[in-house]
Each structure stands twice: as structure tokens, then as C-alpha cells.
Amino acid sequence: MNTISVIGLGYIGLPTATVLASRKKRVVGVDVSREVVDTINRGDIHIVEPELDILVQAAVGSGHLRAVLSPEPADVFLITVPTPLAFGHRPDLSYVESAVKSIASVLTKGNLVILESTSPVGTTEKLAGWLADARPDLSFPQQRGEASDIRIAYCPERVLPGRIVHEIVANDRVIGGMTARCSQAAIELYKLFVHGECIATDVRTAEMCKLAENSFRDTNIAFANELSMICDQQGINVWELIKLANRHPRVNILQPGCGVGGHCIAIDPWFIVDGAPDLAKLIRTARNVNDAKPDWVIGKVRRAVEDLVSSGMDIKDVRIACLGLAFKPDIDDVRESPALEIARLLATRHEGTIAVIEPNLCLSEMAAEQWMIPMELDEAISWANILVLLVDHDEFRRIKPVLGKGQKLIDTRGIWTETK
Ligand code: SAJ
User: Fold this and answer.
1) How far is it between the farthest Cα atoms of the chain?
2) The UDP-glucose/GDP-mannose dehydrogenase C-terminal domain covers which part of the protein (predicted)?
């Protein structure tokens, strides 16, 4: 296992390639984007993730990591490409398929192929089928079992954005080999850098394990979000309620918010729904509850605007400040961000001015979107008639603003709301 090829140099592929390079392996990263390849070969990074820049610089500088546009022969191929949602919440496996087809011509006897991308159950078997079709001269586990020329495994990534460099080493890994020998070979690879336990299982269990983890979280967040809407209607402070309920030794309710964002939790449960549409009732409902939360927040803002208008203000003079745009606290990632969606929709619907405050993004980047009027936190607090707190960033947590007469607060994270 001296040469390792990582296909797809995004949020998972680049950190994985880098950590393998730091273990003195020869790592060839492959990406279809010339810009990504050039950036990495300069020792820079194209994503934002704490500590990763220094590691990439060192890995490229030492000659252990290099990026290329198309696959070269290697001992191990790790596939870490996106698996987005297509129309109708269906999994889009086109990136996996083209990554698999791109390595087929350079595969040689003894190679290990690992899929890390979050995938619907059955994808690794499909992958094996695509490779077998492309390379009839080689044998694969589905035909020859333990005696196959190529070993194939599924091993999902489980790292938390913002903590990837730490978690990629520390977390346990679930390793689903197509045969016991495939699992063993994959474990050998992960043992090069994983300090957590590497646990072997079959491919379908490993695929479902990743989907189940994120669906578990989504379902639990949906419970908190549903509770927050019920409590709002019934005049109960949901944050206080959750604190009290969580004093029960077997209750641990998560935190409500303005919706569920990011590129994992808002997507992966649909893969389970797609595979078992008649059975996955709770998982589908949880997705719908979380997806509906931004609209509920917008409804609250609309009612606050109406209150101000009925007390004599001209609607064009109603100033709204949206605090936070990222999909979760203390990161600059706005992918699938409900906070960004809310701010954008308010900006198109509201006749007055909308300002945005996002301490983790630079103002010039924010101004790239025409509707955005960036503002500093202090200024926004005194400027706005309605403050909509969307993300519980540290900068917001650290203060407790005293609102002026007539100023309204919609606190979707419960950090500025008084509790008893
Ligand atoms: N959220 C809430 N309330 C909570 C917790 C989270 O509203 O109590 C929201 C966040 O604000 C955010 C969304 O959920 O919008 C997702 O954030 P997250 O921190 O729960 O998860 P991700 O998407 O950053 O990372 C998840 C992780 N999965 C689990 O915790 C089960 C991570 O370990 C996975 O590796 C990652 O998905 C992935 O790549 O699949």
C-alpha cells in the first residue's frame, strides 16, 4: 500500500489524502477541476477547514501529495466524490459512476477500491458491477469471492465539518468489505492513520450505517423543531422546556433552530426514503418538518412586520437584520443553509431594508449577492426594527443586547431569549 489514489478532492478527499501523505505514503489526488488541482499543487486549499491549510502545505512541500486531473495506477483507490440529491429527492450517483469508470482502465491485479461517499444501500455492489463490465480481464469479489483480483469495500466518512482534521484520525470506522479479505485489506489502509477502532461488517450494513446515523440526528432535530413550533403557539419557552426535560436521565432533546442545513443531514435521509418509500414514514416526515422550518420563521417575521405597520410604521421603513448565514455555528459554510435561504427570501419579499451579519464570511464575499447589505453586529442591533437571530455563532452568544422600545427579536436559537 505505497501509492494511494484519492478520487475527488473536496471536504473529505483532501483531508484524507493529506493525512495519508503525512504518514509518508505516496498520495495522488485526482480531481476533475483544473483550478482545484492547481490550487493544491501550489500547497493551498480551496475549502475552509481549520488546520487543513498547514497540513496540505506540508504534504505538498514534502512531495508526498500531488494532484492530477486523471487517475494513474496505484495500490489503493479511495473514492470520495459527492452524491447529491437529484430531482424528486432521488440519489444522484453520476459522480460515483464517472469516478469508478475513470479508474477502471488503470486498475491492476491486487488493487483495493474503497468507496467513502455517502451512498444508498446497494451502491458498492453497483460499483463492483461497473468495474467488472469495464475490465473483463480482472476478477471481482462478486464473481470470485475471496480469490478475486480486486478487493472492494465501503467505508463511510463520519467527520464533522469544522473538526475534520481531528475526527478523521480519532473517529471509529465502519468497514464493509465485499468479502472478509476485502474488509481486512481496507482495515489495513485505515490503520495507517485512524486511532479509533476499525470495525468490519458487510457492505450493505456499512452503507445503511452512515445513512442511519444522519437520519437519527435529523429525526431528533425534527422533534426539537416541531416542539418549538408547538411551544411557540402555546406560550411556552421551548429552550427552558428542553433544559428541564433533559434533566430526566433518559431524555436528551436536541436544539431547535431555523432549519437543518449542510450537505449531509438534509440529504442522506432521503437515500433511505428512496430505497424504502413505503416503510420510511418517520424519516420522511422528519425531513419535511425540518424543511418546513424556514417558512415558519419567515411567517414569524411577516407577523412582526405587520405588528409594526399596524402601530403606524410605513412598511418601507421597517428594517430587518438577519444574524448569521452559515448552516451552523462558527463556520463559514453556507451550503444548504436555511439561514441564507431565510435571508434571501426575506430580501425578495420585504419592501424595507434587510441587513445581514455574518462574522465568519468576509464582507466583500457577502456583497457578491446583490441583495445583501452587510452590517457590523453593534450597528445592526441599534439599527434594526426586527432582529432575526438565525445562527448561534460565538460572536452572538457572547453578548446579551438590551432591545430598545418597539424593537422586536425573533430568536430561532434561543440564545438571547430570557429563560426563568
Ligand atoms: N442542528 C440543529 N439542532 C441541533 C443540532 C444541529 O438545528 O441540535 C442543525 C445545524 O444547525 C445544521 C444541521 O443541523 O444546520 C446539521 O449540523 P450537524 O452539526 O448536526 O451536522 P453536520 O451536517 O455538520 O455533520 C453531520 C454529522 N453527523 C452526525 O452527527 C450524525 C457528521 O458526523 C457527519 O460526518 C456529517 O454529517 C456527514 O458528512 O455526513
Assistant:
1) 80
2) 321-418
Q: Which residue's C-alpha comes closest to atom 1 of ligand 1?
A: 260
**Ligand 1 in reach of 335 Cβ (< 6 A):** no
Q: Residue 158: CB within 6 Å of ligand 1?
A: yes
Nearest residue to 157 via CA among 133, 190, 135:
190
Of the candidates 264, 322, 328, 408, the residue annotated as catalytic is 264
Determine whether the shortest distance from the Cβ of 260 to ligand 1 is under 6 A. yes
pTM exceeding 0.70 = yes
The architecture that CATH gives domain 3-202 is 3-Layer(aba) Sandwich (3.40)
Burial 367-386 (b: 16+ CB within 10 A, else e): eeeeebebbebeebbebbbb
Residues 6 or more apart in contact with residue 305 via CB below 8 angstroms: 315, 318, 320, 350, 352, 386
- Measured CA to CA, the distance from residue 386 to residue 409 in angstroms comes to 6
CATH fold for domain 234-411: Rossmann fold (3.40.50)
* pLDDT tens across the length of the chain (420 residues): 889 999 999 999 999 999 999 999 999 999 999 999 999 999 999 887 889 999 999 999 999 999 999 999 999 999 999 999 999 999 999 999 999 999 999 999 999 999 999 999 999 999 999 999 999 999 999 988 889 999 999 999 999 988 999 999 999 999 999 999 999 999 999 999 999 999 999 999 999 999 999 999 999 999 999 999 999 999 999 999 999 999 999 999 999 999 999 989 999 999 999 999 999 999 999 999 999 999 999 999 999 999 999 999 999 999 999 999 999 998 888 889 999 999 999 999 999 999 999 998 865 665 556 777 889 999 999 999 999 999 999 999 999 999 998 899 999 999 998 776
Using most ligand atoms within 8 A of CB, pick from 166, 210, 260 the residue to mutate for ligand 1. Answer: 260
Specify the residue for cell string 403557539. 233
Which of 118, 219, 328, 340, when mutated, tests ligand 1's pocket best, judged by the most ligand atoms within 8 Å of its CB? Answer: 328
Every domain of the chain and the residues it spans = 3-202, 234-411
**Active-site entry in 210, 293, 328, 408:** 210
**Pairing assessment for the beta strands 198-202 and 320-323 based on DSSP bridges:** unpaired
